[in-house]
Design goal:
mainly alpha, DNA polymerase, domain 1
Length: 81
């Protein structure tokens, strides 16, 4: 599996302090994190790590806007001679 090729520190949002807390729970790789119970992760670490776990399992947690809205600009230009 591809998740075995990466370290926890390779995942965006996993910093040194969090990595040490996860290792205390026997979570050493992204694969270990992906099979962790999301309710436990949310209760212990918060919603951001829960979203990382869901993303590792293939569930998108962030919506991407497909259509870019046209910007409405107002410009005031003056020139002095």
């Amino acid at each position: 599996m591809a998740l075995l090729q990466f370290a926890l520190s390779d995942i965006w949002g996993i910093v040194r302090r969090l990595r040490h807390r996860l290792k205390g729970l026997s979570i050493y790789t992204p694969l270990d994190l992906s099979v962790a119970d999301t309710k436990f992760i949310r209760k212990r670490f918060g919603v951001m790590l829960e979203r990382i776990v869901l993303e590792l399992n293939g569930f998108s947690c962030l919506e991407l806007k497909q259509i870019v809205q046209n910007r409405k600009n107002l410009v005031a230009s003056r020139s002095f001679g």
